[in-house]
Design goal:
The protein has 547 residues and is mostly helical.
C-alpha cells in the first residue's frame, strides 16, 4: 500500500454506510417495542380488563425501559469490552427478538383464552424487560459507531443519523398501534372488554418479524471495525488501548466522576432526556383530559419526532461545518426552554392547531440536542470509548424519566387539574426542571480533546505513521515511530522511551513546553494538545492493523 493510499484513511472504510444503516435499523426496531402501548393506553386498559388494566400497569409497560436501562448499560459495556461492538449488536438484537417473541406468545394465549389478564400482563412485561435490557446496546454507541467507521468530516452527521433512529422508531411506534389495533364501537353506558379489541396479536407479530429480519441482517453483514481506522484519533486510541493495561469498568467510571465538565453535561442532559421520555410515555394521558382522542395523541407523538428529525438533520450539518459543539449545545437548551413554555401554553381544549404547532416546535428544538450532547461527550471524554460515557448520560436520563413519569401521572390525575389550563402543576414541573438544566449548562466548558488530536497531525505525518503500521515496520521501536511523526508535524517533541512515557503515564517537561494552544471554536485550523496515550504507538499493536 502506497503512501497515497493511506493519506485519507476514510476512503478505506468503503462499507461504512452499510454498517451505519444496519446499526440504525437495529436501533429503530428496538425502539418500536418501547412505545407499543403508549398511544393506545386507554385501549390497553380495556384489553387487560378492570383487574389488571389500570393506568399504572399500562405505564409500567413503557417505564420498564427506563427501569432496566442501568443493568442493560452495564451488561452492554461489559460485552463491548470482551466481544467488541459486533458482539454487542448481536446480543442486543437477539434480546429484542426474544422479548418480541414473548409478547407474541402471551397475546396469542390470551386471545385464545388459555391464560387470564394477569398471565398476559406477565408475558408482556417480561418481553418488555428483555427489549429494555437490549436498548442501551444501541442507544449508547452511535458516537462509537461513527468514530470507528467514519472520518472526521463525516463523523458528526453519522452520529446524528445513528442517534436519531431510536426517536424515529418511537415515531413509527406511535403509528403502528393505531393502524393495527381497533376498538369496536360500544354504547356510552358500556365498558369495552377484550372481545371489543382487535389486532393486538397482529401488532405483536409485525414487530416480532421486523426484529427477526434485523437479526439475520446483522449476523450476516455487520462487522467489528474497518481494516484501517478512519481517522488519526481512532488510530492512536486503538493503539493506546491495545498497548496499555486495559482499564476496568470501575476505573473508567472513577475517571468520569472526577471530570467537572462531564458531570455538568450529565446533569443537564439527564433532565432533558427525562422530560422527553416522560412526554413520550404520557402523551396520551397529557392530552386526553383536554378532549383529544387516541388518534390525536398518535399524531402529536408522530409530529414531535418527525419535526425533531428535521431539526436534527439541520443541526448535523451545522455541527460538521462549524464544530462549535459547546455553543450549539447552550443555545439549543435556551431554545428548548422557550419551546416548552410555548407547549405548556398551548395545552388546552379546542386548540388542536395550536397544540400541533407546539409539538412540532418542541420536537424541532429538543431532538437535535441528542447528537449535540453525544458529540460534546465524545470530545470531553476522549480517548475513552464512547459507550460508557454515553451510557452513564443515558442512565441519568432514564432514572429521572421514571420519577418524572410517575410524578406527572399523579399531577395529571389530581382532582381539578384541568380546571385552569395552562396554569397546571404538570406544566410548572416541566418548565422548572428544564430551567434548572439550562442554568447548569452555562457552566459547561469541556475541552475538545478528540478534535485536538485530529487537527494536530499534518496529512504527511498521519500518512507516515499509518503506512508504517499497516506495513508492519518492526525494524524501529515505538518511540522512533512516534518521534518521526512528531518531527514531521513540527508540533510535539519526542516522548522518550516506552517505559518512561507509557507506564509512568506522564509527560516530559520538554514535551509539555512544545505544546501549542488547544482548539477553539473560532479557529477550526488551530493547533492542539495531544495526550500521552494518544501519541504512543506500541509495536504489539502494529500487527492488529495489518491488512
Amino acid at each position: 500500500m502506497s503512501k497515497a493510499d493511506v493519506s485519507s484513511t476514510g476512503s478505506c472504510c468503503s462499507n461504512r454506510k452499510l454498517q451505519l444503516a444496519l446499526f440504525s435499523m437495529s436501533n429503530l426496531s428496538n425502539a418500536l417495542l418501547w412505545v407499543t402501548f403508549s398511544p393506545i393506553s386507554n385501549v390497553v386498559q380495556s384489553y387487560l380488563g378492570p383487574k389488571v388494566g389500570n393506568i399504572t400497569n399500562v405505564n409500567i409497560l413503557a417505564v420498564v425501559f427506563q427501569i432496566f436501562y442501568t443493568p442493560g448499560t452495564i451488561l452492554g459495556v461489559l460485552i463491548v469490552k470482551k466481544y467488541g461492538v459486533r458482539g454487542a449488536m448481536l446480543a442486543g438484537v437477539l434480546l429484542t427478538v426474544v422479548g418480541a417473541l414473548l409478547r407474541v406468545i402471551g397475546t396469542g394465549l390470551y386471545e385464545y383464552n388459555h391464560i387470564d389478564a394477569t398471565g398476559v400482563f406477565l408475558w408482556l412485561i417480561f418481553g418488555q424487560i428483555l427489549a429494555s435490557i437490549a436498548q442501551p446496546f444501541f442507544v449508547n454507541i452511535p458516537a462509537a459507531i461513527s468514530s470507528i467507521w467514519f472520518p472526521m468530516e463525516e463523523r458528526d452527521m453519522a452520529t446524528t443519523i445513528g442517534s436519531l433512529c431510536s426517536p424515529l422508531g418511537n415515531a413509527i411506534g406511535q403509528i403502528l398501534p393505531i393502524i393495527f389495533v381497533v376498538q369496536s364501537a360500544v354504547n356510552d353506558d358500556q365498558t369495552p372488554t377484550k372481545s371489543d379489541i382487535h389486532g393486538m396479536a397482529t401488532l405483536m407479530i409485525v414487530e416480532f418479524l421486523i426484529n427477526c429480519a434485523m437479526l439475520l441482517l446483522v449476523y450476516a453483514y455487520f462487522e467489528e471495525k474497518p481494516a484501517i481506522p478512519p481517522s488519526h484519533a481512532i488510530l492512536l486510541r486503538n493503539a493506546a488501548n491495545n498497548s496499555v493495561n486495559v482499564t476496568t469498568l470501575r476505573q473508567d467510571i472513577d475517571t468520569l466522576m472526577k471530570d467537572k465538565n462531564y458531570l455538568i453535561l450529565f446533569l443537564a442532559f439527564s433532565i432533558g432526556l427525562g422530560i422527553f421520555n416522560s412526554l413520550i410515555n404520557l402523551i396520551n394521558q397529557l392530552v386526553y383530559p383536554q378532549g383529544y382522542s387516541n388518534d390525536d395523541a398518535g399524531t402529536f407523538g408522530m409530529v414531535l419526532i418527525l419535526c425533531g428529525l428535521v431539526g436534527a438533520g439541520i443541526i448535523g450539518v451545522v455541527l460538521e461545518k462549524t464544530r462549535a459543539y459547546k455553543t450549539i449545545l447552550k443555545v439549543g437548551f435556551v431554545t428548548n426552554l422557550a419551546a416548552i413554555i410555548i407547549w405548556c401554553g398551548m395545552l388546552r381544549s379546542h386548540n388542536y392547531a395550536g397544540l400541533l404547532f407546539a409539538f412540532c416546535l418542541l420536537g424541532f428544538c429538543i431532538l437535535p440536542m441528542l447528537p449535540t450532547v453525544l458529540e460534546n461527550c465524545a470530545e470531553v471524554t476522549y480517548p475513552m470509548l464512547e459507550d460508557l460515557p454515553v451510557g452513564i448520560l443515558m442512565i441519568g436520563g432514564n432514572v429521572l424519566s421514571i420519577g418524572f413519569t410517575f410524578v406527572l401521572q399523579a399531577l395529571i390525575s389530581k382532582d381539578g387539574w384541568t380546571s385552569n389550563p395552562p396554569l397546571l402543576p404538570a406544566n410548572g414541573l416541566l418548565i422548572g426542571v428544564f430551567f434548572l438544566a439550562t442554568l447548569l449548562l452555562f457552566a459547561y466548558n469541556g475541552e475538545y480533546k478528540r478534535l485536538n488530536c485530529e487537527l494536530n497531525m499534518s496529512p504527511d505525518a498521519n500518512s507516515n505513521v499509518l503506512e508504517r503500521l499497516i506495513n508492519g515496520d518492526a525494524s524501529a521501536d515505538t518511540a522512533t515511530i512516534v518521534s518521526d511523526s512528531d518531527r514531521e508535524s513540527g508540533r510535539i517533541a519526542r516522548v522518550g522511551s516506552v517505559d518512561n512515557s507509557v507506564h509512568s503515564n506522564t509527560w516530559s517537561s520538554s514535551t509539555m513546553g512544545s505544546m501549542q494552544q488547544p482548539y477553539n471554536e473560532s479557529s477550526v485550523n488551530s493547533d492542539s494538545n495531544l495526550s500521552q496515550r494518544q501519541t504512543v504507538v506500541l509495536l504489539d499493536v502494529i500487527k492488529s492493523f495489518r491488512l
